[in-house]
Amino acid sequence: MALLTSPFFGIFLSLAVYLCGQWLFKKSHGLFLFQPLFVAMVLGILILVLLANLLHQDVAKFYTQAYKPGGDLIFWFLNPATIAFAIPLYKRNDVIKKYWKEIMAGLLVGTTLSLFAIVFISKLMGLNQSGIASMLPQAATTAIALPISNAIGGNSAITAMACILNAVIIYALGDWLVRFFHLNSDPIGTGLGLGTSGHTIGSAYALKLGSVQGSMAAIAVVVIGVVVDIVVPVVSKFLF
User: Which stretches are transmembrane (predicted)?
Assistant: First the structure.
């Protein structure tokens, strides 16, 4: 029990399930269902629920006492990892300087419209105030979305799941979406689309396509994070 109450348990569990996801992803030759982040989320939840039941403890209490101390240490690294997106931005700043008006306008309009769409669909599905607050920040990457979710009365666990599912879906459908919208000849549009919808995983995929796509995806993650950080709290005050 001493191990379960130390930060080492949360750190070890996080690393173990992620490495398991990487192994499955490699063995399945890149099957999207075995995307490491998605596998780590699902497998981690299952292990925590199983351990809590075996020890006859409440799952939420077990998560807080056993996993959260180490999990918070892992989460801390999300912030510098997000800041690292400045590297591809710097490498292709020539493209950003040339098209900065189009890029900023597209991201601002797209993000604002997506927030209204999230609210509309959430209400259509009958979500309560906490549910809507949990879904609103999902337009941003996880490191930015979780603190916003907590600040406006949402459930950060639901927000994290929404962000990860978005990324996994975009990873799975990335090639098809690029072909469907005829973005093969438009690296700027491809990068912005992948970064906007797929966050960090979408940006990693964009980097595989090229340096321009990667830099555009990076700026999408950064700009949308700033927009969501400013707009979502304001929108939530009018909604709730």
Answer: 6-25, 32-53, 73-91, 103-125, 156-174, 215-235
Sequence letter at residue 47: I
Question: Could you tell me which residues come within 8 angstroms of residue 211 by beta carbon, excluding any fewer than 6 positions away?
Answer: 88, 91, 92
The number of CA neighbours under 13 Å toward the Cβ of 157 is 9
Distance CA 100, CA 94 (A): 10
Domain ranges of the chain: 7-239
Q: Are 70 and 14 in contact (CB under 8 A)?
A: yes
d(CA 120, CA 174): 25
The model's pTM is 0.75
State both tokens at 172.
């799975």
Contacts of 69 (CB under 8 A, 6+ apart): 5, 6, 7, 10
Q: Is residue 222 a contact partner of residue 85, using CB atoms and an 8 Å limit? A: yes
CA distance to 84, 92, 196, 210, per residue, from 207 (Å): 13, 12, 14, 5
Cα(149)–Cα(145) distance, integer angstroms: 6
Question: Which tens digits make up the pLDDT trace of 109-148?
Answer: 878 888 888 888 888 988 888 888 899 888 888 888 888 9
Count Cβ atoms within 10 A of the Cβ of residue 77 and give its class: 0-12 exposed, 13-18 middle, 19 or more buried.
exposed
Q: What is the mean pLDDT of residues 42-48?
A: 90
Phi, psi of 194 (to 5 degrees): -70, -40
Summarize the confidence of residues 3-32 as an average pLDDT: 85
pLDDT digits (tens, 9 = 90+) for 198-223: 887 888 788 888 888 888 888 888 88
